[in-house]
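Title: Request for sanity check on Golgin-84 prediction

Description:
We are preparing a figure and want to confirm that the structure record we downloaded matches what your pipeline produces today. Could someone re-run it with the sequence below and paste the raw structure tokens into this thread? We only need the token string, no images.
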Amino acid sequence: MSWFADLAGKAENLLNNLDEQTGVALRNHNVAKPKKQERHETFHQDVGTGQRRRPTGRTSKKVSTSTENRATDTPSRKPSPIYHQSRSPSKDSQELTIKTPRNRKSPTRKPNTQFSLNNCPRTLVGDIRDNDIDDQYGLKQRRYSLPADLELLTNHNLTYKMQNLEVENAMLKNELNVMNREVSDLLDRLRRTEDGNVVVNGFSKELSKTQIKFENVEMQNQRLALERDSQITQIEQLKHKIHEITTGEVARQREHNNALEAEVSLLKDRNLELEEKINQLTEKSSEHNTAQLKLENDLRHAQSTINELQVNLEKSTAECQRLEKDWETYKLRVKSMLYAKDNEIKALQEGMSLNEDTKSLIEQLDGLKEEREVLSEAISRVRGECNDMKTYIEQLESRQNSAVRVVAALRDALRDERGAKNRAEAQCLAIGKELKTVQIETGQTIASLRTALRDKENELTNLRNTTSSVRSTDTSALNVADYDVMQETIDNDKIHYLTETLVQKQGKIDSLLADNNMLRIQMEKLESKYKAEMASKRNHTHSVVHVDGDRDRCRSRHQQPVSTLTALSVRFSVAMKRHPLFRTFIVIYMICLHLWVLTVLFTSTPDGHIPRQVKL
């Protein structure tokens, strides 16, 4: 702890030097002006009684704590000891004496405490003796408080101590600057108090002037009171007018809102009707498309059957012509043979003997007769088949004509549907235009309402400013202001509610427009699908079923009437081919049904079954 004692001794020396220098400066200043202080001593005694006292002297605790704190903190840099040894106390005293007059000229910082000639520290007046200073600050004790073993310290300890001393020196310099500022402030106050008698002498004149000003201010207050009353009446009139205007505008806005709600309800009803019409048209178009597909399939089958029948007719006509030619040749051959046989018969009848040749010829004649009968039967069959084919062809032609008529009717229906669709689109466009006009009108009404709200808010702010400038103390005026505030809040609530309703209606209109756009998009998609299906139907090439060479199979197949069971079976098979899920479901259903039947057969017993008694 020796270094701490050394540091404390050095700090005490610095403080003693500082106190001596301040005392010398104050003595010199007080010798220059002793008469002025005696002249104004009585005045400062009267004035300084109400002022606060400044605490005398600094406390040793603060210095010790500051030194302890500075000692515990390690400094950031280590200056050389040569530099610190070169600094002498005379140089420090010269710097302090140079700084004091500069600080006197700039009294920027005012002290927290005020002093008078009676209530002031002893260093400020000049009545301090050398012995008193020495006894007060303990100068004799500080001079002999340094340690005796200063030479035994090492260089490292010296550098560390010099760093601490440098920090303490900076702190003491700051304190000296503060003290110099306080002294300069006190000197300025002394100069000001010297000029106080002049102010006291002119106090009566200032009182007369202030009385005149007070009378003028009273007159102005009376005028302001009259103006205030007139402004209050004007404010009441303006409030009545604003109330009437707001009530009228609110009624108009309500009527306008009711009209807009009615229009919106009508538009909703129209949209619902249009949606129903569109749904009906889509259902009808789907039904017509299915019917058209069925009819086109029937037409394709009918055309394929007609082509097959035409081919069969051509074949049958060719065969008939061939058979006719064969029949004619056979007739000629038979006639020639019959003619020869008749001649032979005549010759035989005339008495000629029968030979083996004649017997063979007779047998040939019998065979030819049988063949003629068979051929006549075949010709009759072919003629019957030809007649049947003609009747079937006539039926197919009638079916084709009916199918053509149905196709024409479907085309007419499609034209009607397209016309209805165009009309619906025109109605949608008209409704969209109406909705746009309604949106524009609602936007205009909202803008007008907003402008009206802004105007009213500006008027209310102006009225508030006028009412705030005119301060009224009457209870009636306060009640009127409260009533006005309540009315303003009610009007603001009404306007806010109206704006909210308008915003909600605008949102509903936007949703209706979005629904209309969605319906329009759906219509366009359906049109595109319909056009694509029609193009695919036109460009699609269907395979023609080739007919086998056997005529009997073709005849039996075409002559069989198409029953409902066969049609259902065909449709069922087509559905099974097109839909694999349906096919798997039917397979699973059949398997489950067979399993159920087998379980029933194996588990059930007949009614007349008598169980056998087992012999034990």
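Thanks, this matches our download. Residues 33-153, 472-478, 541-562 have pLDDT under 50 and may be disordered.
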